[in-house]
Design brief:
The complex is a heterotrimer of chains A (326), B (354) and C (285). Chain A is mainly α and 326 residues long. Chain A has two domains: 22-62; 82-325, Orthogonal Bundle (MetI-like fold), CATH 1.10.3720.10. Chain A has helices at residues 2-7, 22-60, 63-66, 86-117, 120-134, 138-164, 181-205, 209-217, 222-250, 254-259, 278-286, 291-325, and strands spanning 14-15, 70-71, 82-83. Chain A has a two-stranded antiparallel sheet. In chain A, helix 5 packs across helix 7 (181-205), helix 8 (209-217) packs antiparallel against helix 9 (222-250) and helix 11 (278-286) packs antiparallel against helix 12 (291-325). Chain B has 354 residues and is an all-alpha fold. Chain B has two domains: 26-113, no CATH class; 140-353, Orthogonal Bundle (MetI-like fold), CATH 1.10.3720. Chain B has helices at 2-11, 25-48, 53-72, 78-113, 118-122, 140-171, 176-186, 191-206, 211-235, 239-247, 252-263, 265-279, 284-289, 308-318, 321-353. Chain B is flat. Chain C has a domain at 59-83 and 108-280: 3-Layer(aba) Sandwich (Rossmann fold), CATH 3.40.50.300. In chain C, 33% of the residues lie in helices and 25% in strands. Chain C has helices at 25-31, 73-80, 110-116, 132-142, 150-160, 164-167, 180-192, 210-223, 236-242, 264-269, 274-280, and strands at 11-13, 20-22, 34-44, 47-58, 62-66, 90-98, 101-102, 117-120, 198-202, 228-232, 245-250, 257-263. The longest helix of chain C is centred in the C-terminal third of the chain and has 14 residues, at 210-223. Classes of the chains: A mainly alpha (326), B mainly alpha (354), C alpha/beta (285). At the A-B interface, helix 2, helix 4, helix 5, helix 6 and helix 7 of A face helix 4, helix 6, helix 7, helix 8 and helix 9 of B. Strand 1 of chain A pairs antiparallel with strand 6 of chain C.
Chain lengths: 326, 354, 285
């Protein structure tokens, strides 16, 4: 009979599609418009910030990004308005990078410990606490940084300076070690560690158990299994988590505001007590800003928005790609 | 026949279960002793040399422990040895990773407890200056303000978040990929940018800072969390249920509203709670939208309004001893709120599994 | 006889009289009461999964669909009540006629078709957010039917599904509190509430223990006193136990096709195709 079927002419397939009636179509339209709000909202944020600050970009052009002054004019023409965010932009990146460099190895180590080394009971407690830690408001990190961490940080800074003072970016001009990019970076690192750890742990836990078992069956040690199976499997997820943490660090306001001396000068000496980031600049200057200065702050916000958007879109792409593959 | 079987079973001695793969008590004790000796040695070194404090002790302990392990494993083969050292490295990394937030938990509880008195939840700061004794004044106005803003933000966000979850899992229109991508990217919008956005729109438009402006800024930050959680939860609904509903002659909208959404009722509550936990401690956007106040404000459009984060932030800037103490108590209340929210999600989650 | 292959003599068995009659094609279409598949093909995208199946399901009969996995039985059964189209890229050719009317005709409403041709799935899937009573009535609520006497429907459907005695005192508990077999019978009751004339069952017992399976099989036989039942099963003994007619599907790596269909006794004892004989004797599959 199979032969009969083969000799027969196969008819043209008729594409089937689900047909929605009117009620369904209305439902779908309502849901779609609801889902599109986030799309529209994101667009509106960009557009509004840009429109409201267009004058700044028009007046100052590229020097808004590269210049290093933030001077409010006296209004009578003696001192002119001069707003630019160069040091703040580099400060944002510097502090975030410090945070990321500190946070990455510790987070991966922490995630591996919880997932593969800790006893089951400890693992349960730790992962619960970790979720909670990831939800601690950054304000509390700032508070802790100012009151508790600073004394440790200052001592470490002094030690680093005395031992490694010959390294250019560690050398300081004034031996005051408080409120430096290093300190702010450390607190930001503690802020993003729970986030990265929790993402990494999640990814590691999704490693197929049979792959790990195969490693053990081949006589591998625990580290061997982790290196050959777990880490390659979780790589993109961990990178996604790191980008998430980086995005968070780039946009952090209060923790940096509380732990960094905002000084308008390019500074790459991480132990020097000066620096800043865009978010804390906005928080600092917002209260007593003139109308024109406010526009400059909005312009700074726009730059920050674009910066974090790029980082987050990269993160989203990496995370999406890694989940699609599975 | 059955009697014989039972007899047989009785005569066979059932061995006691053993777990030879576990480390024995002796081995565990050995590790503990090595650790103890290292600790004592580290303490001596810290006392004698210039290294000081908890951090100096920790560092010394680590170095000594590595050295001891090196000596202990000197006769083992290379692979086992490497595994041992990597274990120490990972453990050390984990300790360093967990120390900050454990220290935060501890210090918030210890320092916050001092001002954790009834008046903190009732009083306001109208007639109290931050440096007054802790039994004067309070943060009642800030707690009420925070609650109000967060509730309003939830009312705005929850429907939108659920709709976007339903779009991603039920409607699955042409923009599914884009919506998911945007929601994911949006979760990284810096909180201060959300504040600026509401400042340039709503505050500018109504010409006043207000609780409503604060709610809107928080809603912007909350939406991605709620939408993503809602999607995750809806994804867990088995396709079987949808099929069953369609096989009963149901239309899509009835399937979604009567079968799918009721199934994840508690999951959607979790989504809302996680959204609240995400924004309850947000400070930066409130600095630009709702500012702060020293007294009770109940009108969401009635000008600046107090909130817990801005309360803590303001006290921190004052920086006197009792101001800082009040700030710690505010932080403690914030943490307890987050903890309560998380406990609720655990409780609800447990219910869902059944 | 439910076997219709193009180019062959069409034979139909009148189920009431058991008299074999030969009929003309056109006459059959107007006369045949029940569900009929004519030259049915199915595709997933460009992947041809089912080729040229013609089968009839008269009223008040149980038809078992057997065959090795991947031979298109489930796809076939999903074509019969338009569940196939929920898979993106799905395509089909041929006709499915209910009482002579094409359910795939453009003006036909798919939801209305599914109301008349119900389906029970492999895994029991009572709606978790509803209690037992609401589950039984869910079809009425979901399809927005106007019904007055809810209580009698609940009792009637649960009785027909053989579940009434076990659950009549706990109609307000959730379906999740029942055992797997009870849940599956609840799903059957749920399907019955909208009064379908055909009930499709896609391996309804494969997730159940032998005791529950037996109960479901009894239920199926009782259902066949009123409606047509089509059951896909991996279990040949089950097909032998419950079905009046049997259809054997097979694939040679390409699309699945129908090898032969016959009254169950004949198919199991004296099949006309050697492959059927090999399969029912357990030589492959």
């Amino acid at each position: 009979m199979g032969d009969v079927a083969n000799t027969e002419i196969i008819p043209m397939p008729r594409e089937l599609a689900v047909v929605y009636n009117r009620a369904d179509r209305i439902f779908r339209r309502i849901v779609t418009s609801g889902a599109l709000t986030s799309l529209i909202l994101l667009g509106l944020i960009g557009i509004f910030l840009f429109v409201k600050s267009a004058q700044i970009f028009n007046d100052r052009g590229l020097s808004f990004i590269t210049g290093s002054n933030w001077t409010a004019g006296s209004g009578d023409g003696v001192i002119l308005d001069d707003f630019s965010i160069g040091p703040m932009l580099t400060g944002t990146i510097l502090v975030s990078l410090i945070a990321l460099i500190i946070a990455m190895p510790l987070s991966i180590g922490g995630a591996l410990y919880i997932e593969f080394y800790a006893q089951p009971k400890i693992r349960k407690v730790l992962s619960t606490l970790l979720d909670l830690a990831a939800a601690i408001p950054s304000l509390i990190f700032g508070l802790w940084g100012v009151v508790i961490f600073t004394s440790f940080g200052e001592r470490w800074s002094a030690l680093l300076n005395s031992r490694f003072g010959w390294v250019p970016f560690i050398r300081v001009q004034n031996e005051i070690f408080g409120r430096s990019p290093f300190l702010a970076g450390c607190v930001l690192a503690s802020l993003i560690i729970p986030i990265i750890t929790s993402v990494s742990r999640e990814v590691f836990s999704r490693t197929p158990r049979d792959l790990i078992d195969t490693c053990y069956a081949l006589g591998s040690s625990r580290w061997g299994a982790i290196r050959t199976v777990v880490l390659p499997f979780g790589k993109s997820g961990v990178i996604g988590g790191a980008m998430l943490g980086l995005g968070r660090a780039l946009g952090e306001t209060v923790a940096v505001y509380l732990l960094l001396n905002i000084v308008f000068r390019y500074n790459f000496r991480i132990l020097e007590s000066e620096g800043g980031n865009i978010a804390s600049l906005i928080a600092t200057k917002f209260g007593e800003a003139t109308e024109y200065e406010l526009k400059a702050l909005i312009a700074a916000g726009f730059v920050l928005f674009m910066l974090t958007l790029v980082v987050n879109m990269l993160a989203a792409t990496i995370v999406t790609r890694s989940t699609v593959r599975k | 026949m059955s009697a014989t079987v039972t007899d047989l079973q009785q005569t066979i001695a059932i061995p006691a279960p053993t777990t030879p793969w576990r480390r024995t008590r002796g081995e565990q004790l050995g590790t503990a002793i090595i650790f103890l000796i290292s600790a004592v040695a580290a303490a001596c070194i810290v006392l004698v040399t210039g290294l000081a404090g908890v951090d100096g002790f920790g560092l010394t302990l680590f170095v000594i422990f590595v050295v001891v392990t090196f000596v202990r494993t000197i006769r083992m083969n290379a692979k086992v040895r490497k595994d041992e050292f990597i274990k120490i490295a990972i453990f050390a990394a984990a300790v360093l990773a967990f120390l900050p937030w454990m220290s935060i938990f501890a210090s918030v509880v210890m320092k916050g407890a001092r001002g954790f008195k009834p008046n903190f939840f009732v009083g306001d700061m109208r007639t109290t200056i931050p440096d007054d004794e802790l039994n004067l004044g309070g943060a009642g106005h800030a707690i009420i303000g925070s609650m109000m803003m967060v509730i309003n933000a939830t009312i705005i966000t929850l429907p939108l978040g659920i709709l976007s979850g339903v779009y991603l899992t039920e409607v699955r229109g042409r923009l599914t990929f884009l919506v998911r991508f945007v929601v994911q990217s949006m979760s990284g919008v810096p909180s201060i940018v959300a504040g600026l956005f509401i400042y340039t729109t709503f505050v500018d438009f109504t010409n006043s800072f207000s609780g409503m402006a604060g709610s809107l800024a928080l809603a912007v930050l909350m939406l991605p969390t709620v939408a993503r959680t809602a999607e995750e939860v809806l994804k867990l609904v088995p396709d079987d249920l949808r099929s069953a509903s369609y096989a009963l002659g149901a239309r899509q909208w009835r399937t979604s509203l009567m079968v799918v959404l009721p199934t994840v009722r508690s999951g959607l509550t979790t989504a809302a709670i996680l959204g609240v936990a995400r924004v309850i401690g947000e400070t930066a956007p409130l600095l630009l939208t709702s500012l702060s106040s020293n007294s009770y404000v109940f009108n969401p459009l009635g000008g600046p309004i107090g909130s817990l984060p801005t309360y803590v932030f303001g006290l921190l800037q004052i920086g006197t001893e009792n101001a800082i103490n009040r700030a710690w108590t505010g932080a403690l209340v914030l943490m307890l709120l987050v903890l309560a929210l998380f406990t609720t999600t655990r409780f609800i989650g447990g219910k869902d599994r059944r | 006889m439910e076997m219709l292959k193009q180019g062959e003599i069409k034979m139909t068995q009148d189920s009431q009289t058991n008299v074999m009659v030969m009929e003309d094609d056109e006459v059959q279409r107007s006369a045949f009461r029940g569900l009929e598949a004519k030259n049915l093909h199915a595709w997933f995208g460009t992947h041809h999964v089912l080729s040229d199946v013609s089968l009839r399901f008269p009223e008040r009969t149980v038809t078992g669909l057997i065959g090795p996995s991947g031979c298109g039985k489930s796809t076939f059964i999903r074509l019969l009540n338009r569940m196939h189209e929920f898979i993106p890229g799905a395509a089909m050719a041929g006709q499915v006629l209910q009482n002579g009317e094409d359910i795939y005709a453009p003006e036909v409403d798919a939801a209305a078709v599914r109301l008349k041709i119900g389906m029970v799935f492999q895994k029991p899937n009572p709606f978790p957010a509803m209690n037992i009573r609401e589950n039984v009535l869910s079809g009425i609520k979901l399809a927005h039917l106007k019904v007055t006497d809810h209580d009698s429907i609940v009792e009637n459907c649960l009785t027909r599904a053989g579940l009434w005695k076990e659950v009549k005192d706990r109609l307000n508990t959730t379906g999740g509190s029942l055992s797997g077999g009870q849940q599956q019978r609840l799903c059957i009751a749920r399907s019955l509430a909208v009064e379908p004339s055909v009930l499709l069952m896609d391996e309804p017992c494969s997730a159940l223990d032998p005791g529950s399976t037996l109960r479901i099989e009894e239920t199926i036989k009782e259902l066949a006193e009123k409606i047509a039942v089509v059951i896909v099963t991996h279990n040949m003994q089950q097909a032998a136990r419950v079905s009046d007619f049997c259809a054997f599907f097979l694939t040679d790596g390409g699309p699945g096709y129908l090898v032969e269909a016959a009254p169950t006794k004949i198919l199991f004892t004296n099949p006309s195709d050697s492959r059927t004989a090999d399969y029912v004797q357990g030589k492959f599959g």
